[in-house]
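Example record

The entry below shows one chain as it appears in the dataset: sequence first, then structure tokens.
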Amino acid sequence: MLNQESVVPKSSAVITLREITKETLRSILDLKVAKHQEHFVASNAVSVAQAYFYREVAWFRGIYADETPVGFVMLYDDATNQDYFLWRFMIDARFQGKGFGKRALELLIDYVKTRPEAKSLATSCVPGAVSPCKFYEKRGFTYTGEVEDNELVMSLELH
């Protein structure tokens, strides 16, 4: 097993979204955002627990750079109602600024495009100085004008 602390993937690492197994769960749960980012996203432990209570719509994966776990993504994936919502997205503080988040989001968008009648991908974010809202704006998400649980709702049209 690789020691996650000693492996620092290069920016050129291959990014993949992988199913989380009992063997990989701990390494995903150990990933954390920076202290000043904690109020923007739930912990991976909370997210995985929620995913198991919403099995019919929760699609979640570990984000890997080569063989190193670097983040977590969870999608509300309701094919019956053609409702696709980026529920959780995080890159561990140690691995931010390397382009891993951008590339992982591109993989997620590619996945959503394969879903039945997927026309858009929505997400929401807490506004603030170090909020992830700007990250989503740079990727083409636009504000819908909706507010959900004090978070600004954004949407990306899929072509």
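Notes for this example: The chain has four helices and seven strands. Residues 15-116 form a domain with the Aminopeptidase fold (CATH 3.40.630.30).
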